[in-house]
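Translate sequence into structure tokens.
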Amino acid sequence: MQSLEPLRIFVTVAEMGSFTRAADSLGIQKGRASTAVRKLEEDVGVRLLHRTTRSVQLTEDGRAFHVRARDLLAEVDDLHSMFAGDRVALRGRLRVDLPSELARTTFVPALPDFMATYPELELEVSSTDRQVDLAQEGFDCVLRLGPIGDETLIARPLGLLRMVNAASPAYLERYGVPQSLEDLQRREHRTIHFTTMLGAKPYGWEYPDAGGYATLQLPGALHVNNAQTYEAAALAGLGLIQAPLLGIGRYLESGALVEILPEFRRRALAVSLVVAHRSNLSRRVRAFMKWIADVLAPYLE
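Result follows.
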């Protein structure tokens, strides 16, 4: 093998399950990716991928080769940056995913400093409230709120975001200010249901109970899957919400939303930086993860 590029292309194709998506992620032509993997198979003497018109899957030999190739690339990246420190500029493309509301209110406003520090770095920022598939979608790093949900991923916990219960003044004028959990049910208060996938069971209204947490199922006609829509619905007086203070703090300060039942807040929300494998921990990723941690530090418990 004359260079490591075929290995990088193969690993990307294998993890994304597509020559087209891998080529887009790497910034190369699809034909170049296909040729590189075919030549790699000729060099090692085995078929590494099953190709069909609809999918690309690893063969048995390909799975074993993929593990070794991924580890090798991680070692090479570490070796190249071993003595680099800050002397060598960070270059290349970095693809990350951030929760939509935090991206808008917290990270994007802070990005000028990061991009000025690393002017040769190309950043692709996805902002969504669903749990993306890091490998299949080609993400180098994601910021995840709540449980990780996949033990194969590598997570770096950052801390906890405090949650608050809130509603608009117009809603509280119509339904009254609840003073207890019993008030929530007796006065027929309604919540805005949030799920990352429409049609899934709503999370429910969570509250501390006997050393743990329990859930009330409150009525509500509106279901949303986006943090901005969730907050906008609360501002419109459509129901109660439970949201991170970091996201809605400015609305509480302005009076557009009012905190209710402070003694019955939802459990604090875990915040983690997640990568698919240690091979994703390049200097680019480590620099971005440090910046994210620094930006969030003032808001975490």
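Note: Residues 60-80 form the longest helix (21 residues).
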